[in-house]
Design a protein that fits this description.
55% of the residues lie in helices and 13% in strands. By secondary structure, it is α+β, with helices and mostly antiparallel strands.
Length: 271
């Protein structure tokens, strides 16, 4: 029987359950390798592989002492590994327990928290007549603008946003960009719109917010330094005079439902 005949015979006996069995094993091995990558466990895994190789090698060439030593020591090694890598084991079990639905609800909860921080910060800036502009990245990346600012990679809190836009601080000028529900950078310079239909009453912050949303699908919240009005820019259009509740609802529709609104934001004639 040739190799081709043997291969075809194996394929004939290979059913759907066998395919599922192989796929499950492949996924498990892949996830284990992802968890091991970049951790101390990589070196331990290599050491364990060497012991397994040495065990079978000692059996093959009749190294009885080496084989006996490995068989008697391996049990203690397992307990030692459990103690040494208990944190990694907990992380692996927690990762295995995550489901797509759990990840979806976790992302939604984080987005809700981010929205609330932005709304509270906007309200405080409005009350203090402190100008501010916050851009939230969606499907189109804002890396070019992030690299031009001051990198932060910080947790989103209203205290941080208000502090950044406090008049006189080094990061006051420019925009804050939020990427992946974290403050990626501050003092970022955005492209100004050249749309002649935009009211001349809008200042640099508003024109920068509109310019960014003309080029990307980002959502931008602006607080006017002169009037304290809160505005939202999207798809090259801007809506001014938003209340905290209206802003919260707008951001929820845009950032938690993950859908893009049409160009329905009305052009305002004044700040």
């Amino acid at each position: 029987m040739t190799f081709a005949d043997t291969f075809l015979a194996v394929l004939r006996r290979f059913g759907w359950w066998d395919l599922l069995d192989v796929l499950i094993v492949a996924v498990v091995i892949y996830e284990i390798l992802k968890l091991l990558r970049g951790t101390r466990a990589v070196q331990m895994a290599l050491g364990a592989g060497f012991l397994v190789l040495l065990f079978y090698l000692s059996q093959g060439v009749h190294l009885e002492t080496v084989n006996w030593l490995i068989r008697n020591v391996v049990g203690y090694i397992v307990f030692a590994l459990i103690v040494l890598f208990q944190a990694d084991i907990r992380r692996a079990l927690a990762h295995a327990g995550r489901t797509p639905f759990g990840n979806y609800f976790a992302r939604t909860q984080r987005a809700e928290e981010m929205i609330e921080e932005i709304v509270v910060a906007s309200g405080l800036l409005s009350a203090q007549r402190a100008g501010g502009i916050v851009a939230v990245e969606r499907s189109i990346g804002l890396r070019n603008y992030i690299e031009g600012g001051i990198p932060l990679d910080a947790t989103i809190t209203y205290d941080l946003l208000v502090t950044i836009f406090r008049p006189g601080t080094p990061l006051h000028d420019g925009a804050v960009i939020i990427q992946g529900e974290r403050v990626a950078a501050a003092a970022c310079f955005l492209p100004l719109t050249v749309n002649p239909q935009i009211s001349k009453d809008y200042g640099t912050r508003h024109r920068a917010a509109i310019g960014l949303t003309e080029e990307t699908d980002a959502v931008t919240v602006i607080v006017s330094e002169e009037t304290g009005r809160i505005s939202l820019a999207l798809d090259g259009a801007i809506e001014s005079g938003l209340t905290a509740d209206t802003l919260r609802e707008r951001l929820r529709n845009l950032l938690t439902v993950r859908r893009r609104e049409p160009r329905e934001l009305s052009q305002q004639t004044s700040l």
